[in-house]
Design brief:
- The structure is a single chain.
- With about 130 residues, the protein is mainly β.
- It has one domain (about 25-130): Immunoglobulin-like (Sandwich).
- The protein is about 10% helix and about 55% strand.
- The chain has one helix and eight strands, in the order H-E-E-E-E-E-E-E-E.
- It has one helix at about 1-15, and strands at about 30-40, 45-55, 60-70, 75-85, 90-100, 105-115, 120-125, 130.
- Strands 3, 4, 6, 7 and 8 form a five-stranded antiparallel beta sheet that branches. The protein has a three-stranded antiparallel beta sheet with strand order 1-2-5, with no helix packed on it.
- A hairpin with a 2-residue loop joins strand 3 (about 60-70) and strand 4.
Length: about 130
């Protein structure tokens, strides 16, 4: 009986421990990859975003925005940049933008996978980590 109780307690403890953030895997139905990046150096933010479909017969588009945190609100800083592509190679966008010191920044990428008729099959949103400059 003691052994059964001990085994039960160990099982509960193991199941209650959350997985590490890097152990989580994201799966999409129609997308193969979706990436986002942000680096800030010398007052210039370099923003990157890309998405690619898992099938060569699908198309893709990406919209990327740089966001700045003002108080508790994330505001778009500098507009949106877009790109589109055909086939499994997907599309990517890379832009630079001058930034002001004293704020947190992040990049948000919204990718769409579409079939040949233009119907959106999947929408993916990925965000960079926040960077303080």
């Amino acid at each position: 009986m003691k052994r059964l109780v001990s085994l039960l307690l160990v099982s509960i403890l193991v199941l209650s421990v959350p997985l590490a953030a890097n152990a989580m895997s994201v799966m999409w139905t129609y997308a193969n990859t979706a990436t986002v990046g942000l680096s800030i150096s010398g007052g210039t933010a370099t923003c990157t975003g890309a998405v690619s479909p898992s099938s060569n017969s699908n198309n893709s588009s990406v919209s990327m925005t740089l966001k700045r945190k003002v108080g508790s609100t994330w505001e778009t800083y500098g507009g949106a940049w877009t790109a589109s592509g055909t086939g499994a190679s997907g599309c990517s966008v890379k832009k630079t933008k001058a930034v002001v010191s004293g704020y947190y920044y992040k990049v948000v990428v919204v990718g769409k996978i579409k079939n040949s008729a233009g119907t959106v099959l999947e929408t993916i949103t990925v965000e960079s980590s926040q960077k303080y400059y």
